[in-house]
Amino acid sequence: GSGYEAWLGYPRQQFGGSTASDLEYYGALYIVEENETLQAAAQEYRRGMASMLGIAVANAAEPGGACVAIGTFQGGNERIQNVFDEQTIRAVGPEGYAIRKSRENHCIAVGASSPIGVLYGVFHLLRLAKTSTGNEAFDEVVNPANKLRMINHWDNFDGSIERGYAGHSFFYKHNRFLDNPQRLRDYARMMSSVGINAIAVNNVNVHEQETLFISPAYLPDISNIADIFRVYGIRLYLSVNFASPLQGGELGTADPLDPEVRSWWRGKAAGIYAAIPDFGGFVVKADSENRPGPFTYGRDHADGANMLAEALEPFGGLVIWRCFVYNCKQDWRDRKTDRARAAYDHFKPLDGRFHTNVILQIKNGPMDFQVREPVSPLFGALQQTNQVIEFQIAQEYTGQQRHVCYLVPQWKEVLEFNTYAKGEEDAPVKHVVDGSIWNNRYSGVAAVSNVGDDLNWTGHLLAQANLYGYGRLAWNPELSAECIAEEWARLTFGSDPAVLDTVTRILLDSWSIYESYTAPLGVGWMINPDHHYGPNVDGYEYSPWGTYHFADNRGMGVDRTVRSGTGYSAQYMGPNAERYESLEDCPDELLLFFHHVPYTHVLHSGKTVIQHIYDTHFEGAERAAELLASWQTLQGRMEEGLYLQVEERLLEQAEHAKEWRDKINTYFYRKSGIEDQQQRTIY
Ligand code: BDP
User: Fold this and answer.
1) Regions of the chain with pLDDT less than 50
2) Is residue 313 lining ligand 1, measured as CB closer than 6 Å?
3) Do residues 600 and 662 touch, judged by C-beta distance below 8 A?
4) Which among 250, 289, 416, 578 is annotated as catalytic?
5) 22, 373, 390, 396: which is the annotated catalytic residue?
6) What is the ipTM of this complex?
7) How far is the CA of 160 from the centre of ligand 1 (A)?
8) pTM of the model
9) Which of 317, 319, 327 lies closest to 303, judged by CA?
């Protein structure tokens, strides 16, 4: 009941109905290949079937006997060869797989062109066996939509995790590598089971200690981690310090155009690949929040990224260059420095200048993972550049895994957003990042991890649904938030309909609930500085970070129009630019992101802004209390350990939601002097 097994625990189920017919296959496994990844697939299969059905899977001994057969198309497994025809084999991509139930051949076959495809296919089969209604055709070819499906750890060598809400790092402690291969293997299993194929293991803010990760002293330890990841199809990446050549006084400059600097990085790359032949590449945060970068030398970000790209190119490595670049020492007298504009202003002019092995990593919104933001206007605007979208699974601004906030619906909205980059034709973000719109060489999705060394990985058990959902969505953006929630609930808690129904509903309601008692109408922030937890309306108001609401006694909101504000709305294309620019057409949920309005401004909902604030905050706190009450109906319907850990968090959320309600309502009541129409208590 600790949650450690997460969605790989496969709670025991009563097998009934038509699926019973599959049981004859499930009891035996046929595999002929020795490859480590295939052996891992066999192990997963055995483990899964043992916990789900209580059966000890036998090796299929008789030639023709009923079994599950797994293997690569070329791997010499005759069952696989008999089941899959040429056409199917051609349809399976490098990481894809095919699953077919063949009565003729007496087996369920999982075939792929590579060992990792087989492993993904086995995880799929286990998911089906667990969540199945018994009607699956078992005849599918499955390929991932996105090439890169990445996790970014913000773990530091001292064991702390920047924005970590689930304990400490399980990679490092006190500037040493932890010797805990079992935990790393279990982590790799979890990630692989949802299709993650790239993990950066250190914080994008690279401090002195981690700068040395690319040096001979540390590479053997990094390589041990890569060895574990490799079995599960995961490539290891490192975040690097742009000023690395300066550390220890090796060179006097980190200027990307300096020949000595270039050869220094080439040497580093060679050293890394000698230790880790399939090393993924570098993640770089440069010229951002006081990190060093090319600006120091009067160079731009294409110069910086291309220099690293050249060093990695001979080895097939990638540079993942982050677009989270803005001036964190704002001078608001110059509206053009509006933080929302920054990523576009910096990177749009560089479109087409990046090497083919550079990928720009763009946060989903223009600010910083708020509960509500518009979609970054760089999506659609960059047309000749590889790009991945960056989400934050860690709930930095959405309750820090003390509140439940299922983020898959938010990510879905972002991925479905039409950029209008192709005029009349639909050009949603999901097709920008999967590379299909501009035929990019690389493409995909990245996200900041939400795991730590807490026994249940994510602190809040329900936050596991975000991790699970992120992977599933990165693999297949067409899945619905609801289907993912249900799938996760089934795998985690079993098939009790009351549990499934309640857990799914809690997850699906949670984002809107969190939004309703925190910062209103898209304006964001209003949190305590530094640690970013809990309400503080003016916490970031009088600071240089570019994070404002501009509330005074008349109104609030940030004017980002072309007409009278920062001009940010013009970074969008076609109808998006018009919609955001217009006070009438701007969607309510983003009103205060784009416009400064009086408290008496009437929303599309028919309410004034001030009444909307009061109503949503009273309702939000009530709905948070209802989450707890719904959860309490599940007592006795699941393992007690799981039940209790969620109950405890929901109790805390209900309390803290009241604090949010009161702080926000009081603040705006005092500022505006306008009464709540319902005369509720405001302190
Ligand atoms: C912000 C975090 C900060 C990160 C930064 C980033 O508050 O800790 O370093 O993003 O993405 O959300 O680089």
Assistant:
1) 16-18
2) no
3) no
4) 289
5) 396
6) 0.99
7) 15
8) 0.97
9) 319
